[in-house]
Here is the input.
Amino acid sequence: MQKKQASEGFFEDAQENLKKMMSGVVPAAPFDMKMAMEAQRKNMQALMQANQMMMQGWQVMAQRQAEMMSQFVQDNSTLARETMKEGTPQDKFSKQADILKTACEKSMLNSQELIEMMRKSTFETAEVLNRRLVDSISEIKSSANK
Here is the structure.
């Protein structure tokens, strides 16, 4: 019987101490579940849009790389045909040098084009996510002000 009274006293003291500790805490505003769910829906929508944009960018780049590869093969065929033509070795060497110079210049331009495509795609995708982040912060701020 005495043990029961001691444990009851312990819980009463603990309860009283908890009340004293919590007396200084300002109660939080009720949590707006609807707003939180809407924010998450918008977040997911922005992520899906960003992923879709990223995939479209990669598809365009892959298509462009295939076109560049096809052009590269055609250029190599031209180089091979020029090598087989009749003429002096100096003429052949001169033509090959011109073709190789043109091919190198094309390769540099193609690389720059791909880099620009990647930069643009990445920037547009980041813009979607950045816009959502700014909107989300505004939503949190307006919710806190209510």
In short: The chain has a mean pLDDT of 84.
